[in-house]
Amino acid sequence: MLEATSDEAARDVARVPMHRNFAWTFLGNVLFGLTQWAVLSLIAKLGSPEMLGRYAFALALATPVSMLSHMNLRAVLATDMERRHSLGDYLAMRLAATAVAMAAFALMALASSQAGGIIILLGLSLSADNFSEACYGALQRDERMSVIARSMILRGLLAVLALAVVLRHTGSLAWSVTALAAARILVLLAHDLPVASRGQSLGRTGSRAPWEVLRTALPLGLVLTLVSFTSNVPRYAVGAFLGSRELGVFAAVAAFLNAGSTVANALGQTATPRLARFYNRRDAAGFRLLSGKLAGLTLLLGVGGVLFARLAGGQFLRIAYRADYAVHAGLLVEVMVAATFVHMAVLLGYVITSARSFLLQLPLLLLTASAAVAANWLLVPSFGLRGAAAAIALAAAIQITGQLWILRRALRRAEAA
Questions:
Q1: 294, pLDDT greater than 80
Q2: 226: Cβ–Cβ under 8 A, 6 or more apart, which residues?
Q3: What is the spatial distance between Cα 387 and Cα 29, in angstroms, rounded to a whole number?
Q4: Which burial class, exposed, middle or buried, applies to 4 when counting CB atoms under 10 A from its CB (0-12, 13-18, 19+)?
Q5: How far apart are CA 403 and CA 349, in angstroms?
Q6: What is d(CA 299, CA 290) in angstroms, rounded to the nearest whole number?
Q7: Distance CA 302, CA 213 (A)
Q8: Rounded-to-integer distance, Cα 406 and Cα 402, Å
Q9: What's the rounded Cα separation, in Å, for the pair 180 and 147?
C-alpha cells in the first residue's frame, strides 16, 4: 500500500487553499474562454459566415503545429517538484521550438491559397501564447494561480479589443488578426516574462539541459498535437464536404464546446500540482478522492450545458451571433452532448499527466485520432453538421476508455513502488 503523507507534507500541500486557487483559475479560464468566443462572435457580426469560415480553417491548420511546439511545457514545469531544470532551460527549449514552428507556418502559408497570410499571423499569436503558457508553468508550480488568472484576463481582453477596433474600421480579417497577435505579444513582454522570472533562475543548468527538457516534453507535444488534430478533424471534414459557409456555422456553434472546456481546464490546472504531490508521496487515497471530485464536477458541467442548450439554445444563438444562426439550435444540443464526453477526456488528461504518465498517451491518442478521421469522413457526408457532432462524441468516448486504463495502470505502478 502507499504510504501516508507526513504532517509536514500535508501542510505544504495545503499552504494555499485549493478553493481559492480554483476560484482564480476558473475566473481566468472562463473570461479568457469568453474572449476566445468573442473573437468568433465579432467576426460573425461584423463580417460574414464565409469570413468566419476562413478564420476557422486557418486556425484549424495552425493549431496542431502550435501544439507540437507547445509540448505542454507548462505541465512539465508545474510537475517538476524537484526543480531539475531552471526556468531558463524551459524558455530556451520554448524558443527553439517556436523557431521550428514559425518555419512550418511559413511553409503552410505558401501551400494555402485560401488563408496563407492568416496562418502566419495566427502562428505568431499562438507562439506568443505558448511563451505565456511556459511562464504560467513556473507560477503554477508555486500555486500562484491568481497571477496566472490576471494575465489570462488581460491577454484575452486586450486581444479582443484590438481585433474589434481594427475589424470595425478596416473590415479586413488580415489586419484584425495582426492586431490580435500584437496584443498577445505585448502582454507576454510587458507582464508574463517579468512576473514569472521573479525568484526564478533564467540561467542554463548545462548544455544538455534543453535536450533533457525536450526528451521529457516531446511525448506531451505529440499528445497535444494529436488532441488538437482530433478536435479539428470535424472542421477539416466540414470544410471539405460542405464548404466555407457551413464551416463558419459549425465553428460558431462548436465554440460553446470550447467554452465548456475552459472550465474543465480550470479544474485540471488547479488540481495538477496537488495531484502530482499526492502521486509523488504515494498518497493513493488523496489522489483518488481528488480525481473523483473533479470528475463529478466535470459531469455536472456537461449535463448543465445540455439542459441549457435544449431550453434556450435558439435564443442564445440569435443573441450571440445573428438571427440566421438560431435555426441551428438542434445542432447546439448535439454539440453539448458531445461536449460532455470531451470535457471528461480533458479532465482525465490532467489527472494522467499529474502522474507523469506521458508515453502511454501517444498510442491512445493515435487510436482516437484515427477513429475521429474515420467517423467524420463517414458521418459528415451523410448527416452534415450533426454527423460532425456525433463523430466528436464517439472519438471522446474512445479516449476516455483508454485514459481510465492508463490511470489504473499508473496507480498500480505507484502502489508497487
A1: yes
A2: 362, 365, 366, 368, 369
A3: 29
A4: middle
A5: 7
A6: 14
A7: 35
A8: 6
A9: 22
Query: In the predicted model, what is the mean pLDDT of residues 119-132?
Result: 93
Q: Which residues contact 404 (CB under 8 A, 6 or more apart)?
A: 348
Phi/psi zone of residue 384: left (φ > 0), alpha (ψ -120 to 50 degrees), beta? left
State CA 125 to chain mean position distance: 15
Burial class, 370, CB count within 10 angstroms (exposed 0-12 / middle 13-18 / buried 19+): middle
Its pTM stands at 0.74
Within 171-243, residue ranges assigned H as helices are 173-187, 193-196, 209-242
Task: Please determine, for residue 14, whether its predicted confidence score (pLDDT) is greater than 70.
Answer: no
Angle, CA of 224, 229 and 231, to the nearest 5°: 95
What's the rounded Cα separation, in Å, for the pair 188 and 134? 11
Look up residue 205 and give its three cell numbers. Answer: 543548468
- Specify the range with the lowest mean pLDDT, choosing from 15-29, 290-304, 317-331: 15-29
Query: Exposure of 330 by Cβ count < 10 A (0-12 exposed, 13-18 middle, 19+ buried)?
Result: middle
Show the cell assigned to 168.
470595425
The letter for the amino acid at 165 is: V
With a CB cutoff of 8 Å and minimum separation 6, the contacts of 293 are none
Neighbours of 50 (CB within 10 A): 13
The CA distance from 185 to 319, in Å, is 31
pLDDT over 90 at 151, yes or no: yes
Percent of the chain predicted with pLDDT > 70: 93
Provide mean pLDDT across the span 6-14.
40
**Distance (Å, whole) CA 310 – CA 233:** 25
DSSP string, 145-166: HHHHHHHHHHHHHHHHHHHHHH
Question: C-alpha distances in angstroms, 86 versus 82, 130, 214, 305?
Answer: 11, 17, 14, 41
Percent of residues, the chain, with pLDDT higher than 90:
43
Residues 24, 146: contact at Cβ < 8 Å? yes
Q: Is the pLDDT of residue 16 over 70?
A: no
Q: What is the DSSP letter of 205?
A: S
